[in-house]
Amino acid sequence: MGYRAAYTRWQNDPDAYWLEAAQAIDWDVAPTQALFDRGNNSYEWFADAQVNTCYNAVDRHVNAGNGARTAIIYDSPITGRKSKTSFAELQQQVAGFAGGLAAQGITKGDRVIIYMPMVPEALVAMLACARLGAIHSVVFGGFAAHELAVRIDDCTPKAIIAASCGLEPNRVVKYKPLLDGAIEQAAHKPDFCVVLQREEEVAPLTEGRDLDWFDFQHGTSPADCVPVEGTHPAYILYTSGTTGAPKGVVRPTAGHLVALNWTMKNIYNVDPGDVFWAASDVGWVVGHSYICYAPLIHGNTTVVFEGKPVGTPDAGTFWRVISEHNVRSFFTAPTAFRAIKREDPNGEFRKDYDLSCLRALYLAGERADPDTIEWAQDLLGVPVYDHWWQTETGWTIAGNPAGLEALPVKIGSPTVPMPGYDVHILDEGGRILPAGELGAIAIKLPLPPGTLPTLWQANDRFHKSYLNTFPGYYETGDAGMIDTDGYLYIMARTDDVINVAGHRLSTGGMEEVLAGHPDVAECAVVGVADPLKGQNAVGFVCLTKGVDRPHSEITAECVQRIRDQIGPVAAFKKCVVVDRLPKTRSGKILRATMVKIADGETFKMPATIDDPAILDEIRDALKTIGYAGG
Ligand code: COA
Ligand code: AMP
């Protein structure tokens, strides 16, 4: 069946479509119905089913006789370590670790925070939680203690599972001080922490709170899989919104299983046993869906790569991993390719490797610019598929369904909506716009299986953030258009979210941090274009009256403040002092105009601007930090 036929089949009978897809999952109690409409724009999928995610990702492959098949390939160019874990070994490790957690009192519904780098144990921890029906929340290692503390207070975990350190090419990131700092800052305290000690950093354990990863399993029995309701949260993943308070995206168990399993063949075109590699991090949604869950659920081998596209040791590291591990489908963010292209524009490193195993490259996480797509296509000689999705959806909204039918690629478009997604372009009043017109991208409710049903303990915020603007629709926060062939184009965010090196960040959150500086009276943070990272955050601060210190001192403190409170991942390095911020007469800061000035784009003088002369001051300030032609 081709794409159009599949999409039409879904449109005509969504319940039948998803119940059929659900047959690929091993249920404790099979669903009799797919969608449950609970009223007030609240929908549930497979609510009458019982199932366990870990069973489907691990045990069922062992039970089917595939225990010897490789589940995880760990490849760490940073440490030089490599290993392979079979499904049978993974089952033992996960059941053993879950047994340790259970002995400490972790049961179904308990929250567990996981703060770990790219090591196979991160997947073991996630799967062990799923085995017990505990709800994990993985926090990216590049976040600072404060961000971890915010998440601890929001999801009130009974336990935190951490490693002693993460490894960046230039440094060992000690997790223990971050963990201790976060627990100290948080009002909620976990009952216990489990620490995986790594060779590069042995962390001193806190007596009475911290347990060693291996020791705490001694004398406990391996845990069995606990069946949970289809709607039970599999995990919470925090993502950036318009403020400093991150949104806790809830992932429902059954829809997650059904949808992710569906994507592995239909989108990524792999069969069980094939090696699939997503070069991301378990701290992001791409890592949840495509490093941990989807490949394992589908019976694929997943690659856990602890390295960077460049510098570990060189710009050929991706090609080495693909050829050495026989990777069939490869998924990464465009910024990784821009980094490789910058280091090795002629693709010299690629010549050293046989990449005949690779069938396609998938890009997502940020806009894929045409130059990067074309360069990757020429270099690899395989189709390059851009696809668009979000933490909230957990899987592709629009993509090229290569396993169903590879559609012609139109560079600049992530192709077409997947079955399950009824995508429209709306004007400000919520009216559907015709092909070719730019507007807000919205998805008609209900969203498909696997997408967020709510935000963790913040249902009002869920409605306010996503459902209230366009009644009957989910507001994606992206703007774009659909062409006459039904291809979607993603142009920009409609909110204060920016995307730096494929990392989703909140400028509002950064402004809250800068505003906390004692010398800062007012501030604005905007995302300006960056040839490598897509966007970069730039801060403008106005000082409190009477402050008479060198500006360089204050801006350096601002930079440090963001690193300390949000984390190095914010990559916030550019900050400048200005006398005033450009505003409308009603006091709204003209951030979009500031971005245009920084990017050197022409713009229309906002009709409501209070004092146009301020824009020249902004231009001059930007020049001092290398923007606006400076
Ligand atoms: N733990 C601790 N620190 C981390 C971290 C982690 N897991 N990940 C990144 N950081 C730090 C980096 O060390 C860097 O610190 P520095 O300011 O001291 O140098 C800072 O955060 C910014 O990191 P990054 O944005 O990654 O920049 P970079 O210059 O180190 O690397 C790229 C640039 C393009 C190579 C890199 O961003 C990359 O590989 N991107 C791929 C994006 C990706 O996988 N996105 C996931 C969504 S698909
Ligand atoms: P995240 O939740 O971190 O996955 O970020 C989701 C956001 O990243 C989307 O709302 C888009 O703004 C952006 N994004 C993701 N994939 C793409 C893509 N293929 N093209 C353009 N923007 C994208």
Question: What report would you give on this structure?
Answer:
Residues 63-444 form the AMP-dependent synthetase/ligase domain. Pfam families: ACAS_N, AMP-binding, AMP-binding_C. This is Acetyl-coenzyme A synthetase. The chain is an alpha/beta fold. It has two domains: 3-307 and 387-480, ANL, N-terminal domain (Rossmann fold, 3-Layer(aba) Sandwich); 501-624, GMP Synthetase, Chain A, domain 3, CATH 3.30.300.30. A hairpin with a 4-residue loop joins strand 4 and strand 5. Helix 3 (53-66) crosses helix 5. The mean pLDDT is 97. Bound molecules: coenzyme A and adenosine monophosphate (AMP).
Structure at a glance:
With 630 residues, this protein is an alpha/beta fold. It contains 17 helices and 31 strands.
Shape: globular
**Mean pLDDT over all positions:** 97
Counting DSSP E segments of at least 2 residues, the number of strands comes to 31
Which structural class fits the helix and strand makeup?
alpha/beta
Question: What distance lies between the first and last C-alpha atoms, to the nearest angstrom?
Answer: 55 Å
CATH level-four homologous superfamily name of the largest domain: ANL, N-terminal domain
**Low-pLDDT stretches:** none
Radius of gyration: 24 Å
CATH class of the largest domain: Alpha Beta
Total helix count?
17
- Per DSSP, what share of the residues sits in E-state strands of 2 or more residues? 15-25%
Heteromolecules bound: coenzyme A, adenosine monophosphate
**Which fold name corresponds to the CATH topology of the largest domain?**
Rossmann fold
- Helix % is 25-40%
Domain Acetyl-coenzyme A synthetase N-terminal: 3-57
Protein name: Acetyl-coenzyme A synthetase
Family: Belongs to the ATP-dependent AMP-binding enzyme family.
Domain AMP-binding enzyme C-terminal: 510-588
